[in-house]
Description:
Layout: E1 8-12, H1 18-27, E2 33-37, H2 49-63, E3 70-73, H3 76-89, E4 94-95, H4 98-109, E5 114-118, H5 120-125, H6 127-134, E6 141-145, H7 149-154, H8 162-172, E7 182-186, H9 194-201, E8 206-209, H10 210-224, E9 237-241, H11 245-256, E10 263-265, H12 268-273
Helix pairs in contact: 1-10, 2-3, 4-6, 4-10, 8-9
Amino acid sequence: MTHESRCIAVFDSGLGGLTVVHALRRRLPAEDLVYFGDTARVPYGTKSPETVLRFAREDCDFLLRFNPKLLVVACNTASAAALPELESSVPVPIVGVVKPGAAAAARRAGGRRIAVIATEATVNSNAYKRAIRELGCDAPVVQRACPLFVPCVEEGRDASDAIVQALAREYLQPLIPLAPAVMILGCTHYPLLRDAIAAVMGPKVALVDSGEETARGVEELLRQQALLARAETVGSLTCYVSDNPQRLREVGQRFLCEPIRDVTCVSPEEFHAGESAHV
C-alpha cells in the first residue's frame, strides 16, 4: 500500500465528528476515511482532563490499527485536553480542531471581540484563547459553556426544536451586549444548531465552523507532504462506534448529509484487546 493510498482516521466522542467527516468528504472526495465515534462514553465535555486524555489515547490506539496516513481529532474537548500529549506519542501526523478554528476567527475578527461557545471542558481548558493568543491576535475573547447542546443533538433535536431554541437564548443572550464580531462554534455538534445560534446572535456575528477549517488544514497538510489520494479514485467511508450502531445510521445522516451504511460496533473486548473484525 502506498503512503498516499492509506486512509485518514477520524475520531470523536460521539456523532458530532461526522460534521468534520462531511467537510473532509466534500473537500477530499478521493480519500478513504475511517471514523470512530465513542458513543458508549459520550459526552467527553463533562469529563475530567485526565479521563479525556485516557479516552483519546484509546481512540487513537484503535484507529492506528488501520495504518492511517493522518489522524484527525474531530473533538474539541479532546483537542483541547489531549492534543499535545497525542502529538508526542502518535506515530503519524495528527490534527485537532482548535487551532484551525482559532486561526479563522482571528483572521475574521480584525481585532474585534471573539466569542467561543463550547463544552465545559473546552471552555475550562482555555484552549481557544491560548490558540488565538499564540497567533499574535490580541482581540478580546469571551467564552461560554453550552453543555446541553451536545445531548440535544445526540437525541436528534435540531435548530427548529423549541428546547434547542430556548437553550440557545439562555446560553447566548448574555453575550449579545458584548457585541462579538465572530463566534467560534467550538464543538463539532454545534453546526447542526447553527440556525438557532444565528437567530439569537443576529446577522452581524460571523460564525466559524472549526470542522470546515480543519478540513481545509488537512488538505493543505496532505498536499505539502505529497500524500493526497489520486484524484481519479472515489474514497470510501467506514464507521465504527462503541455502542448502538443503528443510531449512528439513523441520526448520523443529519451530520454527514448522506446515508451511512458501513457501521460496525466495537465491543469493549475488541476495543481494548486490539482486535477488530475489519482489520
